[in-house]
């Protein structure tokens, strides 16, 4: 593989706006995730029933992904993103306003997730449009903002839960910040799509095989990340004998590794060829998984999860960059498809691992993670030739 000349990332007002919008997105995602155990106690439901909220989030993302091309075609990217911000805040308000009503909270999780996916995927597409060869770096930085904000959100939920206001007050952060951002930066222009002709007079054609293989790699990466998020604490407890309350801190080690990886990822993406960087990140995650999976020591298990997070940090931004690169310039359509593949990954990956854990034990079931990483490596290598980071083409 040949080296690429360093490129510059110029952070203009539109770039900072998207970064901040994705910071608000993080308050929704990590806020509703942290609130779920408290919500389950308020509702008095089983863990399986509470888990339906995760299913609702996946369904919301898939439904909106199907509608996204029509929406952006009718009102444009900028208006769609602000509608996503409003819907994301409305969904969290539904959960905060009626936390004991299961149908309402399921709807709230679904609405918030679906509308938030507009913010996430159109924001990423706008960054890729705006920054060209520096697009992967901008996408990595945007995801770093999400993780950094996300680290603090569970502490806000915890503090609110122990106050006179209750945990529901923490969910108000999302609509409040969304409103404030709209008032302060609502006039900033977000880049609209620069859709390129498909060589047939502008008539839309189907995506080529490289696009769907890149989307399959995205599926594997998202599924692996959520398997870590939802099942690492259980395996940590099983392997080390630590109580469940302490084992929950294992996810913090994984998240800290992700934060460090995404902070470094923007810098690395400007200096290392995308395929090389992505492959390295997949191998780092596999190495971290091996340390974690084999360890019975809490210290080594924490270290393995931190290393895993370091690698996983770049999986989603790099995989999404490749989906956009394989789109033939049709970034908004590609973003909609990415939302569908990611939603399927969130819904299928952790569920399948849980089903395997019921039958074979959590340690054996966790072998699914390196299997997903291996499939991602294979897909990456197959699509590596002829795919530019700027996304100029999609040979079929």
Automatic annotation (TrEMBL):
It is a multi-pass membrane protein. InterPro entries: MFS, MFS_dom, MFS_trans_sf, MFS_Transporter. Residues 7-388 form the Major facilitator superfamily (MFS) profile domain. It is found in: Cell membrane. SUPFAM superfamilies: MFS general substrate transporter (SSF103473). It holds the Pfam family MFS_1. PROSITE patterns: MFS. Its main location: membrane. The chain crosses the membrane at residues 16-36, 48-68, 80-101, 107-127, 139-161, 167-190, 211-232, 244-264, 276-294, 300-324, 336-357, 363-382. Keywords: Membrane, Transmembrane, Transmembrane helix, Transport. Belongs to the major facilitator superfamily. This is Sugar MFS transporter. It comes from Streptosporangium vulgare.
